[in-house]
């Protein structure tokens, strides 16, 4: 009985610990980039969706931007094609583009179902809807890699409308160029561009790493909090490589463009999003504005 | 010069002829079921989209509900499966459902692009978004045909929200059952259920036939206008068969449930939609309420 | 049958041709100055009203400003007075002012009836209502010509309120000075001042001429499109005379004060307004901003 | 000094006496029928306008309905016609109708000017605007008396819109029949029909009599307050005659149709309206609902 | 490290456990009666305020109704008076009423400060503000006990207005009778009357007992959940006595008048409110509608 | 009878005289500082409340800020304490602060009752509610005088919300510092700070003097109207002393910070507020902006 009461009181403490965070982010927009492992594992997937739904229910305005992950390669394989990559970017011919769009929209609607199942209203759109994402053709070191788009303009009206009507928007990273041709977009880029356009309070990347290390190769010197300027030093110092480089560039760009704070979270930890937002410890690495870094 | 002026005046007359129709349908909802030939031919496709866009611009509130047509079979074939049908309904196993949903969402976003290209804001959704279409498993003469759903409830809030925010909603006929399992839905059924739920002023089917004949087999006795009761007589008299039977049943059900008027149009005629709505002749067959039929 | 279908398809093309124009002027304000021949001929009058009503129905926000034309002289005559003019301006003593106001209000309400008959809600006001038009006494070359007013201020609130409530405002050119004395106003001046005050997208004059010629006297060198600067050159070159001079001055002033485009149309051509707005040819002369003239 | 202070305190008392009345009629609609002597005398006219303006400023929503009085006859005379009457109703041929409408609109705009001069926004309309008053031809004992209309329907939307936008609406009693033909309407009838349509709190007639007497001919037994039922008894008892009969019929009809209270005021007393509303004494005769009469 | 992560994950689970409750009570009104021990102990007081603030932040609409507790007696003593009670009700003469009102308002503003300190906007009112609580004199077994009021009418407009403007309303139980005389009100009665008037989703009493027992005297047979009917049986069976009797009567009355659920909580347990609402166990006794009791 | 009519007409004149003032202050905010004699005399108190209520009813937006006057000393005495003052400021230890707050809130609710009794909705708040008044500790010539606060920030949201919801706000001068400690505030300071924060049209002090004299000591040279600059000259010239000095400093500060006009009224004259606002004479002294003083 005593023990029960103790446990119960611990529960109360956790809820109370969340109080100031709920308060701070009330009605603020939080963009969540969702991809990687957190996407392939069914259990992790459920946790992510529960977390985002909770954010919605306690008064935040989350927006999910997702990738297609391994599903695209799987379906490209199904129709007997081979995936080729240049500098880590998928070479996207017409047929691959068709498949990529189909897969991304399928993932999109799967996420919609999962959110709806938890009793929250969601609408899944792509960058085509309401002209959300406008792109131009992207070249990789001058090489034509097909229908891979670079975002040139974000028209966030459709997102504001859906948020106003109390929907949770879920965005697939597909866009149109000025000729209304369809392009695939890197999901990190899309999340970052959207977060900047809506001046999000937070942009959170669910990744497959713990966060940023001073020395990435050796996994030494974990960094919990870093200013945009410091991140740029790390980059120019050559300490950041692989898929992390564009992501970190995105993060600093976001912070420099009105997003208050960017988080690189380990999507493999269940509820990493909730823990980052509602507890004192925090999880992963936060990239913050230079001024804020100085104040603390 | 004289000739030019005459031609110019004829133009004015056409515009003036449209005046009372624009007036009558101002701010009224019109559901357009779009499928069949009008979908496969690129030229016809452009015309349909132009027509619906014009309806939007002159003050109507159109909603497009579309099918996937031959594309689904094409993609099912691509992955090396064979399509099987029972009583004209596609047997939909898990993998087929995945492909069908992907194709429908792709068609959906293609239509969004085309509308956006004409300068009108569109948002493409499926019956999953905002819980629009709820279904239960459908059996064909008691036979299990897989994930084919029968609509049990329409929750039109997301449509009203999009219309209020001045978007043209485009709907793919996919829904969820109470266990949040995905189902394919017949597009005619979806269009009809939506038209009923939003009490549409008009429901227009773009089909591959001219309209209804008294004697379908012989294509004799074309009918321009028929009451719901008369349509039911035709059906019970055995004069209607093939794919037309469920469609006509849908039409009469719609008229009996608050939709003012249902049109069966020949989607192969360019701009059939505009001509039906804006000119005196009309095109195709109109199914009207019994009272209205009597009055005229 | 073939022929019928051809005719029907031509209709569709006319409607489709109107599409981009409907789009461009959606919710834009268009001020129509209505007077001259288009006013005296009953058939033309009906056409003008039909045109403006159509503009309203397809989403524009038209405002009609009208004159009193020959009716004022007719009623002045009826009470046994003679009309005298100085430099083309009616000398307006107290009794003439009373008659002019009565006639203008009568014309105003006649137009209201005609619009209402076409199913569109109209409200007829004069420059007195809501303090719309404030004037001061106007002199003609230093000569006292009675109660003829020059507009000193436009208070467009009543127009915005009526447009917001979905009425078509119809304005009679009568105003008050700072002593609340009634004055007659030239209808062209009133239309121009109102168009400027509400930053109208278009200001269209229905006149008794085809448009502007390089050489007015010889009716040589018809001009379809002219910049404000070019129009001013024409004027300073002495090529423009008669009633056209103040009108053209008004046009350039309007373009220089925020009205995007001014049209001088031949009100004797049926539906000249519709044809100008909804077809590629255009009709009459358009006065545009200098920058726009250069771009094209 | 003492005396001054006393006078000043009396002022305060008058204002305080008004307190409960201001409170009771806050945001209530009051229809004022304005005609007769109060209209011909310039001093009285100013007083009436001041009174109505004050009502507006302290939070009421007054609507003025006016007649044309002697002005119509004067202008009919000016064009050399003779006025003829049947049972007190002006025989209104086409030309007379034109003159009547012109005069009524002129009076209408004169009132607008006077209200505007006092710093309150007014809009003058007739029963044509926004389809306010719909009529059918009226016969006098079966005799054709021309374009004299009987109100068949009131569409008060334009009045509600103007009140919402904080204008004081001033209404000229002219309407349209179903063929959009113009008709003259008795101003008492118009005021009464409008008061009923907007469920006015009060309907006040400014007349040329002190109010109602038990014996009109002898001017004996002045009645300050009478129920609708008692008024009907007076009428059926033959005690009421002349122009008072239709007015009293109007009054009882108004009370029986949702107007809380009807006042017959002596328009020859300066500020009779204010005195009736803001002081304890009251002035003239009030016709009240039967229930209310019983309670007091 | 392992241990840390485990602890962190337990936190996540607590937050996730709260998810369905946050969802269920989103934008619902919860009335909290705050008094007794939870009020005298500073630590408990802080906890209660934290709890209510959290409810506000996660989207509920809490209203606090508080008593004055021992403070009133303390201040009565300070001025040298003695408190007398009849049947547990304080005999309230004029001076006592003055002191009681002053103390209640002081407690009220103290609570406002505490809520404001946590970053939530609060407004403290009494039943006088906006005419919230109207009372009549209450007699205790026919005995005059002074200015103790029984609620006759609740006018919840001021509460709705404050909630709409996002304030947390805090209510002191003082009201006015029809002569605008001030009366003291039992805080339980006030909470109950307010909960009924606003159709609260929940009404929670923070008390000094664990909840309801089948046998109160022996504290045997603790009841977690009881229907209104069962509660009434307990009462009529004589099992409920002391201060609990009127409280339980209040509870059943509330449930019978539109309040979905009433909770009797032990205010001595820290965060009892949070634990009741956000965890599966629940705490204290819930009184529910008879229908609901049957369903479960 | 003649006499009666004359009296009645005088009433009308008073009402008409108020017309332009009602017009000028329509929907303007007027802050009334209420204290001194006007507060202790029951008759005067009723008059003040009637006046403010009338202001509310005729369309103004009054806010009352009140002091506690002699009541605080009375209650301090009741509990056996002695009041001590330093430079006219009450030395406020913890217990005195408790009593002061209780008394101020009591006075606050008494005023609420009186306004409600007149049929106008009022809400009484203190500077704590909604964080209205933030203060810091005030020292008197370097001396610690306890919990006496100097206003550092006004957060007028709660006032705007109450005005929008049509309540008459009544404010007690109590505030919180950044540690959420309670402080007493001089009521004149509070009224002045609030008037500045809401950019009030008028700030009226009900005082115990006739107004300002050129020579206060001799009561010579009464000043009806003075500019801020002239008032500052009077002050620097040493002509103003006693309690008047801080008040006059407050007045000039208010005028220099957006309040159009400040009035020092003699609260001992019944209805001084009404007389000042609604009659030509005016009463007391008006402090106006320098520019305005020059214009007149």
From TrEMBL, chains A, B, C, D, E, F:
Binding site for substrate: 68-69, 90, 184
Pathway: Amino-acid biosynthesis; L-arginine biosynthesis; N(2)-acetyl-L-ornithine from L-glutamate: step 2/4
Enzyme Commission designation: 2.7.2.8
One Pfam family cited in the UniProt record for this chain: AA_kinase
Segments forming domain Aspartate/glutamate/uridylate kinase: 28-266
Segments passing through the bilayer: none
GO molecular function, one term: ATP binding
Swiss-Prot/TrEMBL GO biological process terms: L-arginine biosynthetic process via ornithine
Catalytic activity entry: N-acetyl-L-glutamate + ATP = N-acetyl-L-glutamyl 5-phosphate + ADP
Superkingdom of source: Bacteria
Entry's family note: Belongs to the acetylglutamate kinase family. ArgB subfamily.
This protein's name: Acetylglutamate kinase
């Amino acid at each position: 009985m005593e023990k029960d009461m103790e446990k119960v009181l611990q529960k109360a403490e956790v809820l109370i610990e969340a109080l100031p965070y709920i308060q701070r982010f009330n009605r603020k927009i939080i963009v969540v980039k969702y991809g990687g492992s957190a996407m392939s594992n069914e259990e992790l997937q459920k946790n992510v969706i529960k977390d985002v739904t909770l954010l919605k229910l306690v008064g935040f305005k989350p927006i999910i931007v997702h990738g297609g992950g391994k599903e695209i390669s799987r379906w490209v394989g199904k129709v007997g094609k081979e995936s080729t990559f240049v500098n880590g970017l998928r070479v996207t011919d017409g047929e691959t583009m068709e498949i990529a769009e189909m897969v991304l929209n399928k993932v999109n609607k799967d996420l919609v179902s999962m959110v709806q199942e938890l009793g929250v209203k969601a609408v899944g759109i792509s960058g085509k809807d309401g002209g959300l994402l406008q792109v131009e053709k992207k070249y990789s070191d001058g090489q034509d890699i097909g229908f891979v788009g670079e975002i040139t303009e974000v028209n966030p009206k459709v997102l504001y409308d859906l948020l106003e009507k109390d929907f949770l928007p879920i965005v697939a990273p597909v866009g149109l160029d000025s000729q209304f041709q369809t392009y695939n977009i890197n999901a990190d880029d899309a999340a970052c561009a959207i977060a900047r356009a809506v001046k999000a309070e937070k942009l959170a990347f669910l990744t497959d790493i713990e966060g940023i290390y001073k020395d990435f190769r050796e996994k030494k010197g974990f960094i919990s909090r870093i200013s945009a300027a410091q991140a740029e030093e790390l980059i120019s110092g050559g300490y950041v490589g692989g898929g992390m480089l564009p992501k970190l560039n995105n993060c600093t760009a976001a912070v420099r463009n009105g997003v208050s704070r960017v988080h690189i979270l380990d999507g493999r930890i269940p509820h990493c999003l909730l823990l980052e937002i509602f507890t004192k410890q925090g999880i992963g690495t936060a990239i913050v504005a230079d001024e804020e870094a100085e104040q603390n």
